[in-house]
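fwd from M.: "can u put these together and see what the complex looks like"

so here's what she sent:
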Amino acid sequence: MVNEPHDVMTMNEGELRRHVERALRELAGRELLIEMQRCARNHLFYQFVELWGPVLYRRDRELFGSFLASHLKRAVWQLDPAKVSDWIAAVEERGDVDIARPLIEAELTGWSYSDGVHDVLETRILQRFQDARSTERRRLVLQMHSGVWWDWSISDEGATKLYDIDGEAFLPWFVEELDGKTRWAQTPSYEGLRARMRSGDDPEFFEVYRRTVDVETWRGDVLQLCDEYGGEGLAEALRRRHPVHNAVPNPGSVFLELAEKAGEAARPYLREAVCNDTEIFDDTWESLAQQFARLGWWQEWAQVVRCNVKGDYFNWAVETVVARDDTLSEAEAMARLVSIAGAGRRSWIGDVVTHQITPKSATLLYQRFPTVASGPFRPHFQIQSRGDVEPEELYSETAKLALQRGDEEFFDFLASRLFGTWLRWSWRSDVYCDPRGFYVGYFRQLKTEEELARRGARVLSMVNFELIDWKGQLDRNGLAQFLFENPTRYLANPQALTELLDSTDVMVRELGFRALAQDDRRARKLAEDHLHHLMAAPMEELSGRGHAAALKTLSGLAVERKNLAPIIVARLRDVARLYAPPFRRGRLLKAIAEIIAAQPELRKPSEEPTVYEYSSNRGNRLAAERRSTW
Amino acid sequence: MVVVATEYVGPSVMESSGESAALSMSTNERRPVRFHARVEKHVLSLRRALRTLGELVWSDFQWLDENEWERQMELILDPVITVHPDRVFFEAFNQDQSAYGLVIADREIFDADGEVCCGTTNIDFTRGLWSSLGEMRSSRETWFRVGPSGFGVSTGSEGEHFEQKVELPTEWVRGFLQLQAAMSLPGTRVIANAVDVASIIRFVEKNKAYESPRSLRFEFVPGKEVDVVLEPWEERMTLRGAKHRYREAKTTRIWGRRRLSLIEPLLSFATGVEIYLKGRALPSFWAVQLPGVVFVLGMSGWTGNNWTQAASFDLMAHDKVEEEVVDRCVEALKGRFVASVDELCGETGFSTQQVSRALSEGCRRGLLIYDVRDRKYRHRELFEEPIDVEEYFPPDPRKERSLELLDAGEVRIIGDEIRQTAGSTAGRDGGVQTFEDRVIHGESEGHEVEVVLRSDGRIIFGRCTCDFFDENLMNKGPCEHMLAARKYADELDETTETEGGAAVD
C-alpha cells in the first residue's frame, strides 16, 4: 500500500473504494489505521461508510474507536442505516456511546418534523430504556441518545415514564440535558414529572423544579412562601426554588413583587438573586431599582443599576444623584455615585459589560464631582463603536471642562477613547473620526516637542482595549495620524519613549522602535537605555517596518559601541535560528553582516569571506569557451 | 459537586496615571490574605505573565458545539493566589481543563508595605482587568495590592460588594487535584533555549498537519543534545545546550502542542525554558523563566485527555497512607510554608517513604502543592473547606479489579530486585543523585507484568501485555495487573517483616 497522500486526494470514488477495499484486505492494526486516516482526507471516503465502518469496528474497536467516533460524525448524511442495521445493533449492545450517537443520528436523517421525528426518537429511547437490564445499561441508553437531534427535548409524558421506570438512571441525565439547553430553547414545562416527584417526596425535586419552572408558577410559589413563612426561613425556602441558569426570563417582576410583599425578610435572598441574574434585561428591573430606593436598600439598588437596568436609567440615576444636593450631603452623593460605577454585569463569555455614560451626564458629573468622573467612572466613558459620531458625542464638552480645570490627564484619557471607534467597517465610506479636529487641533497647538511627546505617549498608553483596526485608525482618525506621523518627536522625552516601548500594542511598540531608528544623536543614547526592548524585538512578530527599524537600531548600536557588539551579535545569531520567513531571516543576516563588517574580530571561522584568487581569469576562460561553442 | 462561594468587597481594578499605577486584586473575603507592595523591579515580567495567565483562563482547545461551550463558560473558577514569605503565585485552569497555568513572582521584586498575611484565596480576574494590565509600565511606580479591601478611590462605597457561587463538578475538582499527582511524577528535565521553543511553536502555527501523529517527539541520544522532531513533518530541531544523562537512546512523545502557543508571547523576553517531561503522552510542564517571574504551563497528555476525565495519575501513588503522618506534614508545612521531603523527615521524625506518601496524599486533598522546579512541597489550601476525599476519589474500577485479582490468587511475583538509576538533584545545579528503584516482575491473569517503584512506592514505569496497556501505555495510569503486582509485593513485604519481628521476639 504505497500511496502518497496526494494520490489518495486525487482519486475518484471508484478508485478510492478499491483502494480502501485493498487496504482492509491487506493491512492490519496501526498500519491500517494510518492508511484510513490518509484516505479520510478525501471527502469521497465518506460515500461508502458501510464498507469501512463495520469492518474496522469488528476488527478492533479499541484501536479504531476514536477514528470511527470522529469520522462517523462527518458521514451521518451519507450513511444508509438500512445497510448497517446489524452494526448499529452491535454498537448499541456494547454501549459504545461515541460511535452509537452518529449512527443513531444517521438513522433519523430520513425523518422530518412533519413525520414526527421527535416522537420517533422518544419511542426509540423509551423502548430501549425499558428493555435495558440494569440501571447502568439504562444510563448508557440515555447517553447514546444525547444530542442526536439538535432541538429535541423529551416530552413531559416521556420524562414521567422514564422516571417511573428508573429515576436513578433518568434524573442525572435529565438534569444534564436541561443544563445543556440554551436559554432560548423551547422545552416543555414538565408539570407532570414535577407532580410525580413531589408526590413521592423525591429529594431531587428542587433540582428539577429550578430548571423547569415557568415564571407564573414560580411567582405563585414565591408569593405563597411569603404567607407561609413569617420571616424565619423565608430566604432559604426561596433559594431552594430559585431558577438556575436564568431559566426564567425576566425574573425582575417577581423580585419586585417579592420585595413589596416580604420586605426585609426577603432581602438576603434578593441580594444574592440580583447578583446572579444579570443577563436578562427588561423594564421591571427599573421598577425594582425604584422599589429598592424607596426601601432604602442602596446596596441592592446599586447592584441593579450597575448590572440589570438599561443605559438610560443608569444615566438618569447619575444625573439625579448629581442634582439632588438638597437631600444628600456631598459625601453621601459621592458614595452613591461610586456605588454604581465600574464593573457591570458579566456576560456569558466572561466579559464585563459596563454602561456608557452619555456626554450630557458626563459633563454634569464632571462639573460637580470631577474626581469621581475621572476616577471610578472612567470605564463608562465609551464612544460608540462606529466612526460617524458628532464631536459632541466624543465628550468634547467634558474635555473642554477638563482643560479649564487644568486636568490634562483626564483630557488625554478622553482623547484616547477616539481609538475605540471602528472605522474600517463603518457603513459609510466617507467616515472620518473627529471631523472638526477638536482633539487633534489641541495637540497640534502644544508648544514644545517634549510636551507633545509626553502627552502623545500618554494618550497611546491609555488605549487599553484590544485594537484590531489600526489601518482604519491611521486612514481616518486625524489624532492617530498626528501621533504616528513623526516618531522623532518622542525622542524629546525619554519617559514617553519608554511608555511606547512598554506598550502591549504592537503598533505602539513599533512607533517606539521607529523613533530609536532615527538618525539622531538622542536616539543613539536612548537605544542603549532600551537595549532589553531591542534585544527582544527580533523575536517578536512585528511588521516588516518595525522589525527593520529595530534591527537597524541594533546594528547601529553594535557598530558604535564596541562593548555591546558581542552581546548583540550573539543574540542576533541566536534568533537567526528561529523558524521565520526568508525575508525576515534576510533582514537579520544583513544586520549581522553590517556588524561583523565593522568589527571583523567578531566573525566566526565560517563567516570569514572567501577570496577567489583566479576568479576573474576563470570567468574569462569560461566566457571564451562559451563563445567558441557558440 | 463543590460549591465555591466567593465574596468580594469590590471588583479588582487597575488604576494608572502618568506617574503611578496600582493593581488592586480583590480577594475572597472569606479567605483573608493581605499583601500590599510596591513592585520594585521587573514590572513588565509580572504584567506579561499575568496577561498570559488571563489568556490561559479563557482559552479552549477543544471543538465544542454551542451548548457544550456555553456550559463550559459557566465553569470559570477565579484564579487562586497564594502569598508565601518567599513568593507570590497564581494558579488557574483553562476552559477545557487541558492546560494549567502557574505564575510565580519572586518576593524580591516587591517591597512590601505594612503587614503581610500569607495564605491562599481566589481573586476577581475579569477580561476588563486583563485589558487594564496593559497599562502597567516600567517607567511608573507600580503598586500591587492583594486583599479584601477594595481600591482607595472606591472605599466608602456601599454597593460594590458582590458574591459569586461557582458550582464545580466533581470531575473538575478531581482534575485539579490529579494535576498535583502528575506534577510530582518523576520525569526528565530539559533546559532549552527560548528561541528553540519559539521555533517549535511557530513551525506548528505556520504549517498544517494533515495526518497523525501530531506530536512532539523528544529524542535523547547519548552524548548529543536533545532533539525535538515535529510529526508528521519529521522536522528536526535541536535544543541547543540541552543536555541529558540517558545512557541509551530514548524517545518521548508528547501531544497537545497547539497549547504551547500560550507561552509564545513570553519567549522574546525569556532567559530560558525548562521542560519537564513525565513520559509518553503523559503531562508535560514548561517553565518559562522571565526576570523575577516564572510562568509554568502544565499540559495534559493531549487535549481530549483533560485532567478531569480520563487521567488517573493518582493511581500511580501509593494508597497506603497514614493519617497521622499526613496531618503532621501538613501542620509542619503550615508553619514553614515550603519544605523538601528530607526536611520534613527531619522535622517530623517519620521515614522518607512515609513522608513522601503523606505529601502526595496532601496534594491529592488540595492541601499542598508540589513545586516541579525546586522539587519541594508547599502549603496551599485550594478550597476554604477541606474536601471529602471519598467523594472525589471513589474507588477506581482498576483498583477494585486488582483487589479481585489478588483475592482470586491471580497474581504471581517472579522477580523482585533493586535497580540503581541516576537522576539530577533537586536544585538546578546539575548535580547527580542515585535512586534505588524497585523492579517487580510478575504475572497476572496470564499477562506478564513489570512495575518499577520509587522508594515511596510510586509507580514510575510499568509494562504489561494486557489490552489496556497496549492501547494506552501509561497515559491513563497503571493497569489493574500492575496495581495488583504492587499490592502483592507489598503484602509479601509485610509478611516478611512480621515474620522477622516474630523471630526476634
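replying to her w this: The mean pLDDT of chain B is 80.
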